[in-house]
Amino acid sequence: MTDEDRLLPIANVGRLMKQILPTNAKISKEAKQTVQECATEFISFVTCEASDKCHRENRKTVNGDDIWWALSTLGLDNYADAVGRHLHKYREAERERAESNKSSNDSENEREQNNKSDLQNQPTGFVRVLEKGSSSSAR
Amino acid sequence: MKRPIVSNSFLFPNGSLKASRIRIEPVAPYSHNMMRMPYHPARRNIEGLSSLEAVLTVFWESQMEQLENFTGFNNYNHLPLSRVKKILKSDPQVKMISKDAPVLFSKACEYFILELTLRAWMHTQSCTRQTIRRCDVFVAVKNSETYGFLIDLVPFGPHCAIHQEKERFINHRGFDLNTSSSEHDSAESYSARET
Fold it and tell me: Which residues form a coiled coil (chain B) (predicted)?
C-alpha cells in the first residue's frame, strides 16, 4: 500500500478541519498532514484494541460493539458515547430496512417487475451496506 | 450569512493605490451540500469561548444534540468508507470486519479530527496567530491525556521558529507571557537545551 493509500485523503481532512474553525482561520499544509497522520493512527490504534478483544474471544469479525468497547477501554469516553448512539441508530435503521424489505418481498410475488425498479431507486449508500446480508457479528 | 472576499490592494509604481475588489460570497448554513463547504453546527456556539475546557464541552454537547436528530447513514460521509476499510484491513490481526465498522469508524474519525483541530486552534489563538501550524497540533497532542497514543508521532522540544522566538523572549525578560502549562513545558525544555 502506498503512503497515499494508507492515510485518509488530505482534502477530506482539510474540509473537516475548516468546518469547525472561524472564517478567519487558516491551516498550513503541514498541519493538515499532521492531522491526517494522527487521524489514521487513531483508526489503527482503536482497531488494534478491538481486534485483540476479538482474538481473545475467538471471533473473526470486528463489529460495532468491539469498536465501542475499545473506545471505552482506551479512555475515549466521548467517542464511545457518540459511537454507541450511532450504533444504536444504525441497528434501528437496519431493522426498519429489513422489515420494509420483507413487506416488499411479500408483494413481490404478485408484482415482480415493479419491485425490482423500487429497489434500484433506494439510496445507494444504504443499500451497499445492507444488500450483502445482515451484520456477521457473533452473539 | 455572507462573507466579504477582499483581494489585497497594491501600490502602483507611481504611488497610486489600486482599489480593492470586494465581492460578497454567500456561505451556506450547515447542510449536506458539500460544494459550498458548510460549517459545523457547533462552530456558532464555540466562537467567543476562551477556555479550552469550555470549547470542548460545548463541542461534545453539540455532537450529542446532533445525534438526536440524526436521520440515517445514507447521508454524506465526510471520509470515504473504502479508505477507512483499507486502513482497518492493514492491521494483520484483523480478518473480517462487519458492515457497520467502517461507518462507525468514519464517524469516530470525524469527531477526532474536529476535536484535535479545536485543541490546536486554541493554541494558535494563544500565540495570537490565525494560521494553524504543525506545532499547534503537536502541542494539542502533548497537552491531552487521551491523545497519549499519538505521542510517538510528535517530536519533543520546540517545534517552530515562532515558539523559539517567544521562548527566547521569555527567557531574556524573565517573565511568562502566557500562563498555560504548554508554554511552561516548551520554555523549560528550550532552556534545558540551552544549558
Answer: none
Q: Determine how many CB atoms are found less than 10 A away from the CB of residue A36.
A: 20
CA distance linking residue A76 with residue B147, whole number of Å: 9
Per the DSSP assignment, residues forming a β-bridge with B24 are: B4
* Assessment of whether the complete model's pTM goes beyond 0.95: no
Q: Does A51 touch chain B (CB under 8 A)?
A: yes
Can you tell me the ipTM of this complex? 0.74
Q: Contact A38/B141, CB-based, under 8 Å?
A: yes
Q: Which three cell numbers stand for residue B174?
A: 524573565
Q: Alpha-carbon Rg of chain A, whole angstroms? A: 20
Distance from CA of A72 to the nearest CA of B (A): 11
CA distance B9 to chain A (A): 18
Cα angle, residue B167 at apex, residues B161 and B173 outer, rounded to 5°: 135
Chain mean position to CA B9: 30
CA distance A15 to B26: 17
Residues of A in contact with B42 (CB under 8 A): 20
Yes or no: say if B87 and A44 are a contact pair by the CB < 8 Å rule: yes
The 3-state secondary structure of B23-92, one letter per residue: EEEECCCCCCCHHHCCCCHHHHHHCCCCCHHHHHHHHHHHHHHHHHCCCCCCCCCCCCHHHHHHHHHCCC
**What is residue A110's predicted lDDT score, i.e. its pLDDT?**
61
The span from the CA of B176 to the CA of B156, in Å, is 21
- What residues of chain B lie within 8 A of the CB of A75, using their CB? 145-146
- A123 neighbourhood in chain B, CB within 8 Å: 74
Strand-pair partners of B25: B3
